[in-house]
Amino acid sequence: MIRARIRVRVTNRAMAESIVQSIEPDNVGMEGLKIEPRISKENAYFTITHSGKIETFISTLDDVLRCIQAARSTLHRIVKEKPS
Length: 84
What we know:
Elements: E1 2-9, H1 13-23, E2 33-40, E3 43-50, H2 54-81
Antiparallel strand pairs: 1-3, 2-3
């Protein structure tokens, strides 16, 4: 079994929750794959386990990281554009 742990630091819990929610559509029932999200204070954590081919795991990990990056970028832009 292959496992990766990802920690995403953000500025508040609401942003961490949004990051976790952004990954949920990708967390579908692929056989042998499990994505477990967790939120703690200003961090979003993901534990990804896979019991199949390493190539599939690497592709999945790459997809998850891209989704996280897109969500973080979008959230930071929204926060910057809010009127004071």
